[in-house]
Amino acid sequence: MSQPPEFHTAILVASVSGDPIVLAKLLHAVRPAQLVLYSTPEARRRGWEKNARSVLEVCAARGLGLTAGFVRLEVEDTQTQGRWMSRQIFQTVDSFCAAHLGRGGVAFDCTTGQGILRILGYDAARRAAVARQRPFCTVYCDGDRNEVLFAGLAGDGWQFEARPVRFDC
User: Fold this and answer.
1) Predicted confidence (pLDDT) at residue 51 exceeds the cutoff of 90
2) Measuring CA to CA, which residue among 42, 47, 93 is closest to residue 71?
3) pLDDT in tens, 96-127
4) Paired residues of 136 in beta bridges
5) In this structure, what DSSP letter does residue 100 have?
6) pLDDT-based confidence at residue 168 (cuts at 50, 70, 90)
7) Do the beta carbons of residue 28 and residue 58 sit within 8 Å?
8) CA-wise closest residue to 105 among 131, 127, 133, 140
9) What are phi and psi of 57, to 5 degrees?
10) Residue 55 dihedral angles phi and psi, to the nearest 5°
11) To 10 degrees, the CA torsion angle through 98, 14, 126, 85?
């Protein structure tokens, strides 16, 4: 990866978060055409999914058009939840890739999400990108620097690119 592949049309996979500003920053820096958000029962109880939907409404009003899909985890124990989540994220990303062939890579957000669920989400998104022969990278929202860091494997190591967060739409 010499530079992030077509991330203005990428599929972004992320977890809902207690801080909806993270999602807003990611959407403005990555500029995906599709968004896959996953949430746990606890996140929904805390209102995080509702907050994410509010961010999407604001982005739509500002002209940042994207298609969003939600993966709603329904079980409480991590082992069962993890298997189900992995399958659902894979299927959702795979179907978005199939519907939008030739429209860029898949980016996975490493800023949000809980430990093991973040790892399982990363793996599912990566497998879906590989299955559809799409470029894949991770993104991380660095609030201290007000930038999003893209990271992808290239050759024998990782390559990074930082993009500033601008709310210009």
Assistant:
1) yes
2) 93
3) 778 765 667 889 999 988 777 788 888 888 98
4) 106
5) T
6) low
7) no
8) 133
9) -65, -45
10) -60, -45
11) -90
List the strands of the sheet with 11-15, edge to edge.
67-72, 34-39, 11-15, 106-109, 136-142, 147-154, 157-164
Percentage of the chain modeled with pLDDT above 70:
87
For residue 59, the surrounding DSSP H or E stretch is helix 48-61
The structure tokens 């990866």 sit at: 1
**Residue 25, C-beta contacts closer than 8 angstroms, at least 6 positions apart:** 141, 143, 146, 148, 165
| Residue corresponding to tokens 């500002």 | 62
What's the CA angle centered on 25, arms 21 and 28, to 5 degrees?
140
pTM: 0.85
Q: Which residue has the tokens 């007000």?
A: 146
Handedness of CA 50, 53, 59, 61 (dihedral sign): negative
Q: What is the SS3 assignment for 157?
A: strand
